[in-house]
Every structure is written in C-alpha cells, then in structure tokens.
Design a protein that fits this description.
This protein has 438 residues and is α/β, with parallel strands linked by helices. It has one domain: TIM Barrel, CATH 3.20.20.70. 49% of the residues lie in helices and 10% in strands. It contains 19 helices and ten strands. The chain has an eight-stranded parallel beta barrel with strand order 1-2-3-4-5-6-7-8, surrounded by five helices. It has a two-stranded antiparallel sheet with strand order 9-10. The protein starts with 6 loop residues before the first helix and ends in a 5-residue tail after the last strand.
Length: 438
C-alpha cells in the first residue's frame, strides 16, 4: 500500500482519518520509528547520570506543542539536526490534551512522523507534563481523581510517553503545623503514582518521573519544602524501586505569562538564586538531575543562558510557540477572527472584570487549537512553511542558549532505545483487511 510510505499522508490520516484508519496509521508510525531506531525512548539514565555529577552545564528544553504538531515538531527536529541537539523533550500536559484535542497516541505519532520526515536519528523523548491531581476533584472523590490519573498514565505510557511529571502539588496544605505535614499528601500520592508507573512500564524501560513541590503561579519554593518533599517521598517509596529524577519548583513565573491591557507581557522577577540553590541541593544531597523551571517561554531572551549556569535541569516552553503561530503576519486573518468570535462565546466565563480584549484573547486562545484543529492544519502549505521557518530559528536560539548543542554524543552514551511490542490493530478498509504492507 504505497500511500502508507508517504509520511505527510500518514501523519494526516493518523490525526484526521476515521477511527480504523487512525489506529492503523498510528501503528505504522510507531513501527517505522522503531525500525529507524528513534524510539520513543526514556531519558531516565541521562538524568541519573546528571544526578551523579557525571554531566552538567546544560538545561533540557521540554517543549509543549499545542497545535499543528507535525509541522512544529518538524521545525524542532530540523533545528536539532543542525545543532546536534539531541537532549530535547516534546511534551503535552493533561489539560492540553483536552483543549487541543490531542490524545496521547495522536501526539506521539505526530511527533514521531515529524522525526521520520526529517530523517532524525537521535532518540525521541516524549513527556506527560503536569499530570495533575486536581484539588477540587480530589476533595470531592479522592479515589475517582487518582484513578483518572492512573488511567491517563497507563494510556500515555502505552502510547510512548516515557517521562511523566507527577503534579500533586495542588494538594500541599499550608494550614498544617509543619512543612513535612504540609507536603505529606503531595509526596505520598507521588509515591503511589510512581509505584503504579513501575507496574505498567514496558519491559526494559524505566519511565522517568518528576515531582513538584510548589504550584506554578503560587509562592516561591524554599529549601525546607524541598527537603521535606524529597525525604518524605524517599522514605515512603522505600528501596529497590526507581523514584523521581527531577523536581519542579516555583521561582516567580506564571504559565503563559501575565498579559497587560495592551496585549504585551508583564516583566517577571525570576528568582535565579533560589533556582540555583535548590538545584544544587537536589543534585548533591539527593542524586536528582536538578530543578525544573515551568512557565518560561515568554521570559526575555537574554535570560535563557542563565538556566544552564544555575544548574537548572529542565525548562518548560509552550506559550511563545503558540504566540509565534497565532501572531505570525501570514496567519490567516479570517481564521483568527473566526477563532476569536468563537472564544467570545465559549470562553465568556473566563473573562474577568476589567479585562481588555487583548488580555482575554491572549489568555484563552490556546483553547482554539482543539476546536479549529483541522482548519489550522489545513492552512496553505506555503504559510505553514513560513511559520515553521521562524519557529526553527527560535528552536536553534533556545538550544544554543540552553547549551544543548552537540549533546548528541552525551545522549548516545547514556540512552538506550528499547523497542516494545506494538500490537497490530484488527481494522479493515473498504471492507478488506489492511495487509500490513509498509
């Protein structure tokens, strides 16, 4: 079936085909990726090496791709090839899976198809960002909320997410008398999730896990909280089971940045001293790769080279890529107007008193990625190419500033790509079974 050798068509059908076509195309993409030796893979051993002090001086970018995932990922892979930047992560958060209409299996296959299209040869790392236990849901029905996260974890690992961010920080209770008591539910649930991950991860693969001590947008984290969480987590987890390899802290950022009334982004005072201090403690005293900085993509460009200098293990980038798509001068005005008219109605409840149109659309337009997914993917190829070219330049800039250029040998040394059994779907097309030809 020659059409399944066309990666562009394969990627499209994996996203927009009927249910049977999607299943088969996603199966083929995973199969082709494993045959090409790119995985997906787990970055766990590289992070453990960093925790042991064997490698340092770089910050891994974890990139949330919310829309036109195939084309944006292609731009990232081109940038990675040009700079030999193999230590990069593609990720999607629990919340993003909903409003961007991207299930784990779709996201993985869009990223892998992009890697295949660009003849990428390094392992592909895919992460579940903010697999968050929601405080409201947990208080209403703890079992239901936790079981929902476990179901998502199982689906995501099966799809090829081999890094999971366990975000139970919403359950930190500052009313408790001691810091350890404040963090107890946070670390105990993180342990429960970790053990569940170990029970469902594929043979030969250690799925990397991350913890979190402070909710992004809240008060800045401190050493006492860090130690209380890690020590409580390690004591509860016990020995002979792989635990977290990084920890997310709050140092002054807010997801998406803070838009002002004129549509610009307010300046943020990032606490690099705390980030450096906590990264060193987590690495030297507990063997973790270091701390994770969330909500950083809209920071001033001159700040990015400070992250490797402070020992930051990982930085999460999302909103700026979204902004570069929606605000690109070639992005179709009629489509943007259609999106904004839809947001006026569908997101009306999110409009706070005194919020300008610029602020409202900036904060809510991410939700248009799902509603208008097919229209956005269908933008004229020449326009997509121009947007992708600008994104490629941004990726190169970030890879250089984060000092992951020429990280290919490091990744090759520590990361082993393990192929897993991929079950061929029992689907048919036109009344006939697919023959599985590649």
């Amino acid at each position: 079936m020659d059409k399944y050798n066309d990666i562009d068509l394969l990627a499209w059908d994996a996203v927009f085909g009927d249910d049977e076509t999607k299943k088969y195309c996603r199966y083929l993409i995973r199969k082709k990726a494993q045959e090409a030796g790119i995985g997906p893979a787990s970055i766990y051993e590289l992070y453990k090496a960093r925790g042991k002090g064997e490698i340092s001086g770089f910050t891994v970018p974890a990139m949330n791709i919310r829309g036109i995932t195939y084309d944006v990922s292609r731009a990232a892979f081109r940038a990675a090839k040009k700079t030999k930047s193999a230590a990069i992560i593609f990720e999607l958060a629990r919340s993003e899976m909903g409003y961007t209409d991207q299930k784990a299996s779709e996201f993985v296959c869009s990223v892998l198809a992009a890697a295949l299209k660009e003849n990428y040869t390094y392992p592909v790392f895919i992460q579940g960002d903010h697999f968050q236990v929601k405080e409201k849901g947990y208080k209403a029905d703890p079992t239901k909320e936790v079981d929902g996260i476990k179901k998502l974890i199982a689906e995501s690992i099966e799809a090829g997410f081999y890094f999971i961010d366990l975000d139970t920080s919403t359950l930190v209770d500052l009313s408790k008398p001691t810091v350890k008591e404040q963090q107890r539910t946070n670390y105990e649930l993180a342990v429960e999730m970790t053990k569940y991950i170990r029970s469902v991860e594929p043979k030969g693969i250690t799925v990397a896990c991350g913890g979190e001590i402070g909710e992004i947008g809240g008060k800045n984290s401190n050493e006492e909280e860090l130690r209380a969480y890690i020590e409580g987590y390690n004591e509860t987890l016990g020995k002979n089971i792989a635990g977290i390899c990084k920890i997310a802290v709050q140092t002054g950022t807010v997801h998406g940045g803070i838009p002002t009334a004129d549509g610009k982004i307010a300046s943020v005072k990032l606490d690099f001293d705390t980030l450096e201090k906590l990264s060193k403690i987590s690495q030297k005293d507990y063997g973790l790769a270091g701390c994770v900085q969330h909500g950083a993509s809209t920071l001033p460009s001159e700040l990015f080279d400070r992250f490797p200098k402070t020992g930051t293990a990982e930085i999460h980038l999302a909103t700026e890529f979204q902004n570069m798509i929606f605000d690109h001068p070639k992005f179709p005005a009629d489509l943007k107007n259609k999106m904004y008219e839809w947001l006026k109605v569908s997101a009306a409840s999110e409009r706070k008193e005194g919020m300008s149109d610029s602020q409202f659309f900036y904060k809510t337009r991410k939700k248009a990625f799902g509603q208008f997914k097919k229209e956005i993917w269908s933008i004229d190829k020449s326009i997509i190419a121009e947007i992708a070219a600008d994104l490629e330049k941004k990726f190169i800039f970030l890879f250089e500033k984060l000092n992951i250029v020429n990280s290919d040998n490091m990744v090759k040394k520590y990361v082993k790509v393990v192929n897993v059994d991929i079950k061929k779907p029992e689907v048919s097309a036109g009344g006939e079974k697919f023959d599985g030809a590649d």
